[in-house]
Design goal:
The protein is mostly helical. The protein has 2 domains: about 425 residues, Growth Hormone, Chain: A; about 55 residues. The chain is about 75% helix and about 0% strand. Helix 8 crosses helix 17 and helix 16 packs antiparallel against helix 19.
């Protein structure tokens, strides 16, 4: 049976540096998110410099995605067992080492190896949620979790905005060197400032379950990532998808039969957990689809009858309103979660996000329409991401925070991989002679993302409501 150290009210009173802890966690999360997205606009430059193929360059993204997905729940579980601070410092050190390897890489194999090591930093987010839950005063927890959760979206959007200026001013190596500085700051801060939590879940990692989890995730994400290259009906893709389905069933059976599972299947069956995870996957589908669709749309030559001839830097700026909106909305989402429960901001976030894609599908002839739509998307994603993290934390015991948050992050990752590939495939399928897609292809892709967000709203409606809290709300500047 799982046991944890007793946590007394005095524990919260002793943790007087929680604001500084929050700052360190925010820097750590932003660094990981930046490294996730800064690479995407630089793939062409990396491909040419390292003399690799388009498929080889794609693996720079795929390797990071796979490594982060596999490592996140495992390291989250290790944090629950051995201490969240200890594993946070380890994850940040791995992120720093991988960043240096990638920055110094002179071949595609070394670059991919560096990205695999970087992906271990994906555990930063579930560990951060656990630390906030353990270390912050109770009334500060929803806002703290909301703001750290939103950093995943903020950092990803900011990475796409910053990539163009960095590449044009310096070269692609600097998309690794610049984020390395905050990674090192966060690692040092975590080691010397963040207190170790007394909350533990004594036990060990079920390594058979971990291997099976890694196996089905690798099969699924490789199939999704390579589907447009290999062909969705190719034997390799269909074989990998079939293998993923079989391995998923075996993994569930092994975990259900284990006395010390990596992921407690009873926890995953909780209504508050599976509905939130489903919402996470669908919202990730739409958000990452926008990272593909909006820059590509605005960069299209105006001679096609749409698009704005935008450069890489200008294309990133079209997503800047989304990043700003997420930053501004996240504290509000935390306050709403504390006052009314996290279900409401999740529902609002899904609806607002859906409206942004409806606007993109219906009105995209003028620049201001794109700016308005991406601003709405930022509001929606900011509300939804913040709420999802809080819903997971509210639904599970303290000693399962790490692994539960890790699985929620995986669901967002799976949704993001599906959304980006689906968006690219729909647009590519509309290409006419000359290779350029038609505006109808973009309209269909925007509409598909809107449908995904509406499905996320339906899943959010099914989330069980939480009791309203009557305690005083923290001010926005108190976290």
């Amino acid at each position: 049976m799982l046991r944890c150290a007793a946590v007394t009210p005095a524990h919260d009173l002793d943790r007087t540096h929680y604001r500084l802890t929050f700052g360190i966690l925010a820097i750590a999360g932003a660094s990981f998110a930046l490294l996730q997205s800064l690479v995407a606009p630089a793939l062409r430059e990396i491909q040419l410099d390292l003399h690799t193929t388009t498929t080889g360059a794609t693996w720079i993204l795929t390797a990071y995605l796979l490594s982060a997905s596999v490592a996140t729940p495992i390291v989250g579980r290790l944090g629950d067992i051995y201490g969240k601070k200890k594993m946070l410092v380890s994850a940040l050190c791995a992120l720093a080492v991988g960043t240096v390897i990638s920055a110094l890489a002179t071949s595609i194999s070394v670059m991919i190896a560096g990205r695999v090591v970087q992906g271990l930093g994906g555990a930063v987010f579930p560990l951060a949620f656990g630390i906030i839950r353990d270390e912050f005063p109770r009334e500060r927890v929803p806002t703290g979790i909301a703001m750290v959760s939103s950093i995943l979206g903020i950092g990803a959007g900011l990475g796409i905005v910053l990539a163009g200026p960095i590449i044009e001013t310096f070269d692609y190596h600097w998309i690794f060197w610049f984020p390395l500085v905050p990674v090192l700051i966060a690692a040092a801060g975590a080691a010397f400032v963040i207190p170790e939590s007394p909350v533990r879940a004594p036990g060990s990692v079920n390594w058979n379950g971990a291997l099976l989890l890694a196996a089905w995730l690798v099969c699924l994400l490789v199939a999704v990532s390579e589907g447009s290259t290999w062909g969705w009906s190719s034997g390799r893709v269909l074989g990998l998808l079939a293998a993923a389905a079989v391995l998923l069933v075996v993994w569930i059976r092994v975990e259900s039969a284990s006395s010390g599972p990596l992921v407690d299947m009873r926890m995953m069956r909780l209504r508050g957990v599976w509905t939130t995870n489903l919402s996470a996957m669908l919202i990730g589908f739409g958000m990452f689809g926008s990272f593909v669709l909006v820059p590509q749309f605005v960069q299209m030559p105006s001679s096609t009858g749409y698009g704005f001839d935008a450069s890489v830097t200008e294309a990133g700026l079209f997503l800047f309103p989304s990043t700003v909106a997420m930053l501004l909305v996240s504290p509000l989402a935390g306050k709403l979660s504390y006052a009314l429960g996290s279900k409401l901001p999740l529902m609002l976030g899904a609806l607002v996000s859906a409206s942004s894609f409806v606007l993109l599908a219906a009105a995209h002839s003028h620049r201001f329409e794109i700016y308005v739509a991406t601003c709405l998307l930022g509001v929606g994603i900011g509300l939804a991401f913040s709420a999802m993290a809080n819903l997971i934390v509210e639904a599970v015991p303290r000693e399962q925070t790490g692994v539960a948050s890790g699985m929620n992050t995986i669901m967002r990752t799976i949704g993001g991989a599906l959304g980006s590939q689906a968006a690219a495939s729909v647009v590519a399928s509309s290409a006419v002679e000359g290779g350029l897609p038609t505006v109808d292809g973009f309209t269909a892709a925007f509409a598909l993302s809107a449908v995904a967000m509406l499905a996320a709203f339906a899943a959010a409606v099914a989330v069980p409501a939480r009791e309203r809290r009557s305690a005083r709300l923290p001010a926005l500047d108190e976290v």
